Amino acid sequence: MKTLAFLRRYSRVRAGLLVVGALVTIAIWVRTGPLPAGLLDEPMHPSTVVVDRHGVPLREALSSDQTRGMRLTVATLPPSLVAATLAAEDRRFWQHPGVDPIALMRAMRINLAEGHIVEGGSTISQQVAKLLLNRRSPAPRQRGVGAKIDEALIALRLEHRFTKAELLAMYLNIAAYGNQYVGAERASRGYFGVPAALLTPAQAAFLAGLPQRPSGFNPYRNRDSAIRRQRAVLRRMRAAGSLSSEQLRIALDERLTFAPREAPFAAPHFVEMVLNASGRERPARIETTLDAVLQADVAGIIDSQRDLLRRHGATNVAVVVLDNDHGEWLAWEGSGDYFDAAHGGTINGPTTPRQPGSALKPFTYALAFERGANPATLLADLPSSFPTAESGVVYVPRNYDNRYRGPLLARRALAGSENVPAVALASEIGVPALLRFYQRAGMDTLDKTASYYGLGVTLGNAEVRLDQLVAAYAAFARGGEWIEPTFVRRDGNQVARTQRLVSPRTAFWITDILSDSEAREFVFGRGGSLDLPFPVAVKTGTSQAYHDNWTIGYSTRVTVGVWVGNFDRTPLRNSSGVTGAGPIFNAVMVAAERRLSGSSTEFSHDPILPVPPGLVQRDICALSGERANAWCPVRRREWMPADEPEVPCRWHHLGDGELLTIWPREYQQWARQNGVDEAVHPRRKALAISSTASAVAMPRAPSSSPLTIVSPPAGATYLIDPTLRRDFQTLPLRVVATTGGSIDWSVSGRSLGSADAASAIDWPLAPGEHRIIARDREGHVAETTVTVR
Q1: Highest mean pLDDT among 181-185, 392-396, 550-554
Q2: Which residues, in sequence order, are CB contacts of 613 under 8 Å at separation 6+?
Q3: Per DSSP, which regions of 53-117 are E strands?
Q4: Alpha-carbon distance 768 to 582, whole Å?
Q5: SS3 state at 429
Q6: Which H/E stretch holds residue 299?
Q7: Which one-letter DSSP state was computed for residue 545?
């Protein structure tokens, strides 16, 4: 029995020793295990000066050697800053081994009580580990429990290798203090103009509170929040015994005076892009294409438009200016305010894909011109439906103002940014060909299938980058040649990548149309932000639901692009490309021309492009687009191919002493409904006859029924157009009635109202399957069923 009891005790002791041994082994491994390779290595980047095209410094990225003079050591740790930092970040710093279970439990209890994260529970040692890991990793590290465990293990190992004072100095040298200040010494000099050793307790408490949330406690933007945080740190210092009651009172009474903020480095989004592209082995000097003076002008223009932007609910602006001759970026504004953390200020807007709306239309017309069309090509601006890739589904585009203008020449259709003619052209060209053309023009975000985008791609339902769209527009300004843009000056041995996008003739036509203020007057009016004191080809765009608006255009020297919106996609209020981005575009274009021409008052009035060979000006009928005859009431001069057959206008004739307009069949109903027979000429009568000049009646649907619904056709499927306001999403309901009179309409059991049998009634589209019923006064009933998606 004694032997058995002894063996049992021996087994328990042995098991206990094994457990203790295992725990000791784990503890030793945790504390003495290897640190990640290169964790403690200093960044070895040389000092890099980024300058503009004239040698003006934009930013200097200092090397580690040049920042050593602003580092704190164990011997130079300021007592007031140490006390404030420990009170703000880690009250048990001197007691814990690198991880503080008490702080973790306290943080968990507070966070559960508040319902969200208020305290993190990380020690200063853990924060040092996190900062070192972030500095070592080129990409942002994943957050989560796994990351916290890694940081805790490394913190324990750092505590084994360094003294507490060394870890504290390390933290103060690599922590971020906002406004581009890294390290407490640099932050002390930046905010207060004094070395950290001379900080008062009030100033030290302010600095110590910053690393938790540098943007939120930025004193230049959120002074009240910064002061509240500073006072909280002062009270913690008093609770920790670092301050007496009298010292606390003096510190709370001290009024902090901040040094004027150091001018932020110019064009921060642009400079960061340049530095990121230069790789890890950066040269000592990078000469960029930017013009610092023009960049400052752009910043001032945006600031001057703040009130207007706020009225439209816009918080973000992106602006780029591209030199046409060499494809060099002259100005680059990424967000409107790099330091506006609340609205994504660090996001680089020109490289962020957004929907451009009508700003894509010129490329549809350019491809049509390449295939034989010209500015006098007649396009039908009429209610139309187009098949889609999905069987039975049709696409019914609407114009922005919900009006149809009947026969419309390509010049006016593009200048006035009408949707229906653009979709008709896209349907004729084909979406696959359009997508290939966009991609050739450098817009690489359009990478999905033709069926994914559909015909709406010509109206800008796909997302593109502002910088790529501006580079594509600049190809028109160069007579059709696309140049790959650059942000670094090319030396004599570097040749830009180029390709012919369109012919000089097409580039001239697009430029001539987009700079024709008379052609766009019927939609945009005159004297607004699109009219400048020198020739400018310009196009606006507004995306679905008013999330984005754009204005892009070019002069002889530069191409300017402006995007206005919100990075979080909050819709704008009553804002389009004309009213939102337009005023900024106007001012930036003027500033760029003044800068490049060297004159503040004199501008060149020469055309943007010379007339290419093979074009001549001819008189055409403004209605038909054919060569004007003696009876055409409105005519205009148009640049036409010299070898184009001259067909006299077949629409206008003189008969029985009266001027007659012969409307082709497809325009007869539009002419009737719009009363244009009296609008063009007081002595003209309009004949509803076919294109062969034989008199016909208005077409009727063949039917033996006294009442037949002819619009919409039975079983049709309609798609709600994402590019238009919902109040424009209507479908005209029409009948053919032998009895005439009034027709009562109902949709899905709800009365829609009454209309004369010869007229249409508009029904607002709504998703779903709908049964449409028409009843005349004699009790005849007709019905049809449609689907809306």
Answers
A1: 550-554
A2: none
A3: 57-61
A4: 38
A5: helix
A6: helix 292-304
A7: G
Query: How far is the C-alpha of 354 from the C-alpha of 130, rounded, in Å?
Result: 34
Q: Please name which of 627, 527, 656 lies closest in space to residue 583, comparing C-alpha atoms.
A: 527
95/124 Cα distance (integer angstroms): 12
| CA–CA separation, 409 and 416 (whole Å) | 11
User: Strand, coil or helix: what is 679?
Assistant: coil
Q: DSSP assignment, residue 136?
A: H
User: Cβ distance 271 to 50 under 8 Å?
Assistant: yes
Report the 10 Å Cβ neighbour count for 512: 22
Helices (H) and strands (E) in the chain, counts: 24, 27
- Residue 711 is which amino acid? S
Claim: this prediction has a pTM higher than 0.70: no
Residue found by looking up tokens 């080129």 in the block: 138
CB 481 within 8 A of CB 328: no
What is the distance between the alpha carbons of residues 145 and 141, in angstroms, rounded to a whole number?
12
Coil, strand, or helix at residue 561? strand
From the list 503, 492, 505, 608, the residue with the least C-alpha distance to 558 is 608
505 vs 677, which has greater pLDDT? 505
- Give CA–CA dist 724/737, Å, rounded: 33
Q: Is the torsion defined by CA of 684, 521, 417, 558 positive or negative? A: positive
Above 50 in pLDDT, residue 240?
yes
Q: Please list the alpha-helical segments (H only) found in 51-183.
A: 64-67, 79-89, 101-114, 124-136, 145-161, 164-174
Beta 393-395 vs 717-719: how paired, if at all? parallel
Residue 414 contacts residue 522 (beta carbons within 8 Å): no
- Greatest mean pLDDT among 46-60, 504-518, 542-556: 504-518
* Residue 221 CA to its chain's centroid (Å): 25
Question: How many residues are recorded in the chain?
Answer: 789
- E-strand ranges in 27-86 read 48-51, 57-61
Q: What's the pLDDT score for residue 20?
A: 44
* pLDDT for the residue 788: 82
* Share of residues in the chain with pLDDT > 90 (%): 43
Any residues with CB less than 8 A from the CB of 38 and at least 6 apart, and which? 136
Helix, strand or coil for residue 434? helix
Q: Would you give the distance in Å from CA 478 to the centre of its chain?
A: 26
CB atoms within 10 A of CB 695: 8
Distance separating alpha carbons of residues 537 and 524, to the nearest angstrom:
14
d(CA 105, CA 702) in angstroms, rounded, equals 83
Contact of 348 with 388, CB cutoff 8 Å:
no
**Could you tell me if 354 and 565 are in contact, meaning their C-beta atoms sit under 8 angstroms apart?**
yes
* HSE value, Cβ hemisphere, 13 Å, CA-based, for 333: 27
Q: Please answer whether residues 221 and 106 qualify as being in contact, where contact means their C-beta atoms are separated by less than 8 angstroms.
A: no
Q: What is the largest CA-CA distance in the chain?
A: 140
